[in-house]
Amino acid sequence: MPEFTHPLKVAVIAFDGITPFHLSVPCLVFGTMSGNIVGAGTARFDVEVCSAEKGKGPLQTSAGFAIATRRGLAALDDADIVVMPAWHDDCRPAPPALLGALRRAHGRGARVVGLCLGAFPLAEAGLLDGRTVATHWAAADELARRHPRVHVNEEVLYVDEGDVLTSAGVAAGLDCCLHLLRQLCGADAANRVARRLLVAPHRDGGQAQFIERPLPVSGSDGRFAQVLDWVARHPQHQHSIDTLAARAAMSRRTFTRHFRQATGTSFKQWLLNQRMAHAQRLLETTSASIEVVAQEAGFGAALSLRQHFRAALQTSPSAYRKRFQPGAGAIA
Question: SS3 for 304?
């Protein structure tokens, strides 16, 4: 994870007909919310909305009001992060000027993010060739048809390919931006921003949980949610599907079905994610030894924690703590 000694410049590309919600997602995560929470009085991100429409006046939104931007695509020339927050619903070809600006930004090392249908201009610019990407499930087949060198995963909420990130539709853009914020500023900062936005700091699973018909609400749903909350607050305990099903007053089969429907992932992976998040918070906010962190997070021993950290984050617990604890030179 790189060090940054200056506020990161985030260029968010707007266009005529953009949906205000899509535009607001990166502006909220990296702008107002993170400035108040992450920056602690010092701006960590410099967010600028720029226009993809050369020579146009105020841009019309899908909600019926217009927005004015101060800069055009030149804003991409010095941006550290470039966000294409959406694209037209008909997935029309992007103008050459936009494609060229995206290529130049990526070529000089900017991280490029395509949220929802924003993956289409990135693919057209050639930035997604040979990569696994996400987009809204309803447009996944069309993206794959137009760009056969792009591997489209229509089940995930977002995909991080390092220098290029893509997300599924609408609210998944929040997941993707919070993920990037977590990388740059740490889990505790991303969690605080998520709490201010009243969203989960990390959602497990993928789009399948939203495509499929939801389960009817019943009295058991409340018990099920309480069990998941209890597990998240006690990651150091030994947990099994059988013991948790009993705690929820469900059969193993019913509990498993509820779990898959609610999270879109396996219990083993969900529990690992909860334990990783808890370990990250302890490393960021306490001086407990790596051995104690491993025990408190449910990994048992420091060796197991180190192995999972290396697999998930490509770093060690000690290096992670050094980066994200106050006074360690990290953005936190």
Answer: helix
